[in-house]
Amino acid sequence: MATELKVAWGPRKDNVYLGKEITRLDGVEKASGAAKYAADANPKGCLYAKVLSFKGGAGKVKSLNLDDALKVPGVKAVHAFVKEGDELQWDGALVAAVAAERQEQAEDGVRAIKFTFDTMEHFVDEDDLKGAEAAKRTKDLGNNTKGDVEAALKSAAVVHKGQYGIATISHMCLETHGSCTRWEEGKLIVNHSTQNVSGTPANFVSELQKQHNISVDAADVTVLCQFVGGGFGSKFAADDWGVAAAKMSKETGRPVRLMLDRATELKIAGTRPSGFAEVTIAADKDGKIVAWDSHHWGTNGGMKGGTINLAQFPYVFDFDNRNRKATGLVTNAGPDRAWRAPPHPQLCALTDTAIDDIAAKLGKSAVDVFLANIDKTPEKLQATYVAEIKRAAELIGWSKKWHPHGKGGDGDVKRGLGMAIHTWGGRAHAGTCTVRINPDGSVESLSGTQDIGTGTRTAIAMVLAETFGITLDAVKVRYGSSVYPRSGPSGGSTTIGGVTGPNRRAAIAALGKLFDVVAEKHKVDGNNLTTKGGKIWNGDKEVCTWKAACGLLGMMGIETTGEGPKDDGLTSEQVGGVQMADVSVDTKTGIVRINQFVAVQDCGLIVDLLTAKSQVYGGLIMGIAYSLTEEQILDNKTGRYINADLENYKLPRIGDIGELIVEMYQPDSEYERGVIGLGEPPVIACGAAISNAVANATGVRVPTIPLTPKRVLDALKAAKA
Amino acid sequence: MRDPREETIPNANGSGFNRRDFLRGSGAAVAVTALATSDQGATAQDAKKANVASAKAQDVTLNVNGKEHKLSLEPRVTLLDTLRDDLNLTGCKDVCDTTNCGACTVLIDGKPTYACSRLAHECVGKKVTTIESLAANDPVVAGFVKHDAQQCGFCTPGFVMATKAFCDKNPGATLAQVRAGLGGNICRCGTYVGITACAMELVTKKGGK
Lengths: 721, 209
Ligand code: FES
Ligand code: FES
Prior knowledge:
In chain A, 29% of the residues lie in helices and 24% in strands. Chain A is α+β, with helices and mostly antiparallel strands. The longest helix of chain A is centred in the last third of the chain and has 28 residues, at 495-522. In chain B, helix 1 packs across helix 2, helix 4 crosses helix 7 and helix 5 packs parallel to helix 7. The longest helix of chain B has 18 residues, at 19-36. Among the domains of chain B are: 58-132, Ubiquitin-like (UB roll) (Roll); 134-204, Orthogonal Bundle (DNA polymerase, domain 1). Chain B starts with 18 loop residues before the first helix and ends with a helix. Chain B is α+β, with helices and mostly antiparallel strands. The interface between A and B is large, with 74 and 78 residues. One FE2/S2 (inorganic) cluster binds next to loops of chain B.
């Protein structure tokens, strides 16, 4: 009788690896500089490419001549992204590329390009709704109503009208977008900085055909990416520059490495859309919100005229009476790309701030008002939110530290508390994998996934080691190549479920086959066998070692495949999460400092507690960045992105983050939910939590995030006037 | 405060020129103009490109990780590009190329330096040490792994070099000193908590010995 093993996670208490703090397997490789990124690819004969990008708000190409660039010493290939008459619709739009023997020669080549353009009108002012309307740069994105807002407003105990906003930011991947391409016997090999190893070959094929009439079979394109220096949602495609590199490679018969320069990276390789809103919110005397009326606008750049999805407003809470309306602004800014948890950080920043203001108007603590409205959040998250709010409040000392808005002290430096809550799906993406048990007892997992820094490789190894009862070092995880079984793109917190589900399924199937062989040899029932500590057990009797069992397999060993997602309970979706900030605001300088920042976060079954916490810490730090300092600054007059460098695009440094306190919410009920993604949620509530803390400290709402010193001072001044 | 490294700050007895001064002198002024009036919309990066002149390649011998390398390089080539493209020592990363982020940190005569702030020709006669020279069991590398002080890992080698130099020089340093001393590097993924824990452990061990 063949062994039939149930597909499930084991009892929590029996786990050797799952849920424990396991250091990442590629840690030494990365920390010692041995890890090779696309930017580090340096094959023999490699040419280095640089781009000429447009410097202006909008323009039409008058002339473009690359002949002189080709005459520059060292230059081997040139490529025009545009031709005469084409429109360049935003600062940084690609004009041409030059590939040369050395980087400095490629820069010489770029300087030698003859390029002229006629200036066209531009509009970049993302928060100026009136100006956009006057310039005919708006799109009506609809409105809808639920309940009776008018009546609810009339009967409410308090009504608050507020203005809120959150500026556009860039992804600022420290490894810029780009690739190193080469052709070998008609086959294209790309070291690509990507979150989408399995999906990119087909994209190269179609774009090479469409843009350059170059035909290649998808089967002859290999995309490689073991390490990626940040993506955050912006690295899913072949991209025009990757395709241009492949074309120049083909022309020259040489490898070409084209990584965007920092400025171009910030301008065209992805932004997170802005959002601004006028909100009217009303509550009864107990703090229950009875009406919501919002009009929000903003831009996703790229002349697209989109803004944050109307249907997701207000965020997390579904109030009985609400109006909502959205307007998109058509701006000459680089187009958006998915930015970690799209568009939840903006939704949260425009919703939880208004909730905080109505709490302040009632003289109530935000904790009480959020709790009073928990029944308006998704039903399956309500208990989690309540538990997480209570725990976060304990961790930050809310009840001891809290004071009404504006009572943050008598000195120039005021202190305050703020909170916000979030949600995210995090369902497993589609993916497959192969698992092998080799006759020597070693084990392999193969899949075309990628490790974007979240610890995917370590998580896969942990699942196999746990399933087979062997040590981590007996597991080899192969990933980061499109020749392996297909796995989904790493976006939207879908990877952890997308890889652990299939690997667990494949491993259980493989274990069943191994038990068949062991059962026959040792005359036992395979269904009674288990494996732990490198041994096979029959009840509590040792049958043989893992190695001896694998030695029975013959030369072929065992190979199984796993797929996902499936409804077998290994993975599920939807998490909550609560964040609370304690800040100090210097009312003389406008500088906001984080004292403490608490995150309590659920994510179902935690695979690796160490890397899970790292995700949350990282989310908080990225959150502090966009809450306090970081933004894309477009100059109205020139249309240009004037802080497209690491000097003027301000990111926090190691001393700028205060004390971060992270706690994973992990009762057994979470373990039972199976694996859920974690990358997105911790970055969502930061903006609202910090803005609310500043409002609590000063008694003044600084309308737009990031809360730069100037915005803080302007708001304080306006409040006085 | 942000950049405690004397070697990257112009000093009186030095050559009087390094790439950082040069960028500061031209680029920063232009950047200020751009932010103030935005008349040309020029950025620091544009200025850098416009001001660097080309010249013939010249022979140069560089001592990197204890080995002499004979190269032929134009005077304008940075140490960073030389290490990465010519010597294939890609642990130091090109992230900003404008001396803001520390991803390119190497040691020059033992002092942490942004490799993008130096021209290769400036480094003749000096000892350049890159992350590749660290032993496999280096305590800083091990500490980064233990405290999970890395995610994507792109900033990590630069941070490891900065941490190594700081902790070697400042046994017994306080938390505030660690935060100030490692302020010359940027991580986008947000690994500062792990890095701080790692550095604190290292300076405490050293301070206590
Ligand atoms: S690349 Fe040298 S400091 Fe950023
Ligand atoms: S680990 Fe990704 S930038 Fe620091």
